[in-house]
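Hello,

Our lab assistant flagged a job as stuck in the queue for most of the afternoon. It eventually completed. Since we weren't sure the result was trustworthy after the delay, we are filing this so someone can double-check. Below is the sequence as submitted and the structure that was eventually returned. Let us know if re-running is recommended.
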Amino acid sequence: LGDVYKRQEYIRVTKENIEKEHICCAISSNKDIQVISKKNWLKERFDDGLVFLKSIERGKCFIEYIPAENAWNPIIAEGYMYIDCLWVAGSFKGNGYSTDLLNACIEDSKAKGKKGICILSAAKKKPFLADPKFLKYKDFTVCDEADNGIQLWYLPFSLDAAKPEFKECAKHPHIEQAGYVLYYTDQCPFNAKYVPVLLEVARERAVPFQANRLETKEEAQNAPTPVTTYALFYNGEYLTNEQMNDKRFIKLLDGMEK
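-- returned structure --
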């Protein structure tokens, strides 16, 4: 990967520089529990081929991708690269940086002999998922869809490349447990702060709430949901992949009680 592209300067985060680099997720302090959690997760993924490329400036402008065989998602996409997250927001939006980052991923994936790239999205834009309009503009197409509307999109590098798909466990998101059940990983830094907040709200409201942190690649690859960074269920039914603070969770609880 080169360090400089036509519109912005980028840097690749590695084991060697991760301690001094800001990792973009709207959190300024490297001592924040969210940053520590995310960096620890990244450190353990670099040996699996994870690439984290970000703007040299502080802010939300980065791409994170990994060979699909090592992705923390229940997908079948042998030989593909999987994009964990492509996030450009705030003052970075509208400057072509998403294209820069995606092009860097495409170039790197082709150099590594990959069949193509895949990423999660939905028919309509959902929080914390790729924008389907952007993906369509970049020639991605839908290759699979789960019952809850989460879609797997792909960009093959050849016409004969096999289509990626969800594993059977993720195609029909449903669980047997009653009450609220959350599946999450440390891939998203916000979980380190807000999952304990939700647990406390649930305790105060006497609401049954179980938080399941997926701690290994194997656990994530066999989860009952396409989105493993954050998937909330209620009485067995999938609710949302959107991370919540205490106010949003209370609003959800109040709405469920009506």
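-- support follow-up --
The delay was a queue issue, not a problem with the job. The result is valid. DSSP finds seven helices and 13 strands in the chain. The radius of gyration is 18 Å.
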